[in-house]
Amino acid sequence: MHNSEEKNIAVVCNALAGNGRAVKLAERIITELITKKIQYSVFMQAWPQGFDTFSDIWIVGGDGTVNYFINHYHDIKAPLVIFNGGTGNDFHWLLYGGKTFEEQLQLVLKTEPKPIDLGRCNEKFFINGVGIGFEGEVVKSLKSKKKKAGKSSFMAVILKKVFSYHSKYYRVTVNNESFMSKKYLIIDVSNGSRAGGGFHIAPDAKADDGLFDIILVDALHPLKRLRWLPVIEKGKHIGLSFIHHSRTEKIIVESNQPIQSHLDGEYYSADILTIEILPGKLLFRY
User: Which long-range contacts does 273-276 make (Cβ < 8 Å, 24+ apart)?
Assistant: First the structure.
């Protein structure tokens, strides 16, 4: 256990996150650490090979920054903290809810680290979730666009795609049981409970239970998509006839064409997705 005198914090910032919001947030964190006389180093442009000399790592950015971090340092043993400097900040919300900056800072300086599950999709890692189908298409369309904070960027593309998107055929294997190949609008593999800057796609998901929450959404007519999207956004969709919810440690998704997906909001495509959970792989202070 490090007390504040022994702490040596690596502040890792994505200078591009949140259109500059992350940099301002990192500066605020540094001011606080100096005031509290806590040892720290800041990494903005270049991140180190490893973090062996640090007691804690504070990541400043959104879900994309955290995704980049865990893909480069997935064997990290030091406790992690996320500060919400991105656009979506869904995983930050899962850990810290609506806490103010001051409240979060107080919490992470005194609380013990707790284990959080990590996900692996093929050779890549993710922490919040994988969205397949419609979600993948939305993220692909957002790739080159400048994102606004929250879900406004997502909503603009969603409303456009809601009418034009064609559901694809997938074969889904959960708990070694294959569902027949059929059309799905969305296949969502959630470690966290929220995605897309505020969609409560898997409202009951826990990031420390060793299981993914799987949400399968059957193919829907565009008008039905429009009708039910706000319901999914609020997390009130579990139990609807076209929603299939299960929990599993592993899921395999196959298709006869490249599968469009995203990992923590980062676009990814492959012919087959093998997704498994690595229970308690990371430590977070929250």
Answer: 273/121, 273/122, 273/130, 273/132, 274/121, 274/122, 274/250, 275/119, 275/120, 275/121, 275/130, 275/189, 275/212, 275/250, 275/251, 276/119, 276/120, 276/249, 276/250, 276/251
